[in-house]
Amino acid sequence: MRNKLWICLALVLIVPGLLTMVSCETQNVKTDDQSTSDGTGTDTGGTDAGTTSSGDGTISATGEFIPGTTFANEQDKFFKELVYFEYDRSTLTENSQEILTFKAEYMRKNPNLSVSVEGHCDERGTNEYNLSLGDMRAASTKAFLVDLGVDPGRVSTVSYGEERPDIEGHNEIAWAKNRRAAVASSD
Amino acid sequence: MIRYFIKPAIVCTIFFILILTHPCIADDDNYNYIDIDNPSSRKIPIAIPVFVNTAGSAADSPVFKQMSDLMIESLEFTRYFNVIDRGAYLVDPVNPAITRDKVKFQNWSTIGADFLVTGGLKLSGNNIKLELRLFDTVKGKRLVGKGYRGTVSDQRQIIHRFCSEIVRHFTGSRGIFNSKIAFVSTGTGNKEIYTCDFDGHRPKQFTNNKSINISPAWSSDGKWLAYTSFLKRKPDIYIKDLKKQEKGAVIAKKGLNISPAWRPGKFVLAATLSFSGAQKIYLLTGTGKVIRKLTRNWGSDLSPTWSPDGQKIAFVSDRSGNPHIYVMDVNTGQTERLTFHGKYNTQPSWSPRGDRITYSSIEKGSGNIYVIGIEDQDPIRLTDKSGNNESPTWSPDGSLIAFSSTREGRSRIFVMTSYGTDQKRLLALPGKQSNPKWSPSFTK
């Protein structure tokens, strides 16, 4: 009960503030070839005109990968569920914030756990700029966890830029899946 | 593993001797160099017959052709010369002439070869004695004459020395023959840094740490190579002595330590660090100590490149919302935006001549190489939408640009003139090659 109450409080009080804070801190770059006016990516139906289906998930009109994966247990979900980003952006989408809210709660329940957040990019773009972008993605991911009460000393960040793709491939699905932040145990 | 650029033994064995009575006859005092960088000016027509055996017998060793072919290849690499095909030569194969009193200049000017290089080679065992001469066939005049001694394994150095003389005759600069190119290759399954000669020959693996190694940067004296490596599972800058690999510093602050660039003439570099939270460009000593923060605006600043006088940097910043190139005076801090076209301009490289900056611009998902004048700020696209073109870098004389391209499928390194003409692949190794960085000219 107390846990739930805590989460509710967090969601009601902190998250709206975070939304404005995070978007002030991080850069919000629009790409010209992608419409941002409709379908911000919470619809995982795949029938939407603005989405692309890839088998284990969909890509929203803004380029965010929305996974349809299910996880065996909380631990599995904590380590394997990735946070995805839109092209050339490091701001957290609604979906990412939901995933990170779960991760913050998991870290609260496992107080001895320290993690490393890895920021990654797709292969488009240039190496050094992508290292910079991956750093921003890891930083905004960490900032969100910290704002939900996680001790900053328990979260380190590292950018891999475009150097460690999750998926090999040169198409929208591979790119969308590679624009991500992953959480790994830093032990 | 690596790697002495100039093996002292070789230097000792190449005796640089002048065999002709009037050494540097080449340059009149008021000689005007032609603007041969401009692609609208005609390439210099030159003939380079197979070297002649001065020992009297026939040129029966493959070395005669090898060395003269290497000269053709090396001069053609500069993009300044049009080497006339040997099939057109009107020479007496039994008694080919190599000296001014014997050469029939009309035979050469008739076939359009305004210039001629002759070589007289004496081969005894492994030892080489080579006389090389450059002639103006229209005026019937010898322009340069030099003699070299060495061993068969020195042939590249010997030929490149004379090529330097030839290029200096026409341009006033010694050219690129003493330079190298560092690059990243994935042949081992990891991104490792390699070096090769300016023409792609003699590739050598420089790093061998099985992590990710990118962004090689040469110090202006050619002694140090800095690069970004994930050896400790995060991006840090490593500074290595090119001769003794074990020496050097590591810049491994919290967060990013990327995009090193050496200040010309100094043991100082600019690099992007994010230990303070924001990604800013700092000035650091070659031993890795922060001197001061250079950029202060909102946004991420990265990929600095120095003006040849060491007073300014160009760099990438996303302060406008998209990555663009900016120029900053490091003394006053005064900063101006340089690029306004497109939405993704990164990887600036400042010309050694000072007047232009090359960079890559991503348009509709693929990259192209541009050049922009510091003064006119007029961007000119040099690659024509074939594949993804990235990481442009100037040759030390400012005449050529190396870059990576996927136009043939896998990423390879290409070289073109600074006007975008004569785009040719430099080399193809196993894996992918990217991130070329041209060295300064090594002085001996």
Give the class-level CATH name of the largest domain in chain B: Mainly Beta
Question: Judging from the principal axes of the Cα atoms, what is the shape of chain B?
Answer: elongated
Sequence stretches where pLDDT stays below 50 over 5 or more residues of chain B: 1-31
Percent of residues in helices of chain B: 10-25%
Q: Give the overall form of chain A.
A: globular
Low-confidence stretches of chain A: 15-49
CATH topology of chain A: 60s Ribosomal Protein L30, Chain: A
CATH architecture of the largest domain in chain B: 6 Propeller
| Total of helices of chain B | 4
Number of domains of chain A: 1
Any idea how many domains of chain B? 2
Counted beta strands of chain B:
31
Please state the CA-atom Rg of chain A, rounded to the nearest Å. 16 Å
The CATH superfamily of the largest domain in chain B appears as TolB, C-terminal domain
Strand content of chain B: 35-45%
Helix content of chain A: 40-55%
Oligomer: heterodimer
Q: What proportion of the residues of chain A form beta strands (DSSP E)? A: 15-25%
In N-to-C order, the SSE pattern of chain A is HEEEHEHEHEHE
CATH class of chain A: Alpha Beta
Task: Give a short synopsis of this structure.
The complex is a heterodimer of chains A (187) and B (444). Chain A is an alpha+beta fold and 187 residues long.
Could you list some keywords that capture this structure?
heterodimer, A: 187 residues, alpha+beta, 60s Ribosomal Protein L30, Chain: A, 5 helices, B: 444 residues, mainly beta, Rossmann fold, Neuraminidase, four-stranded antiparallel beta sheet, 4 helices
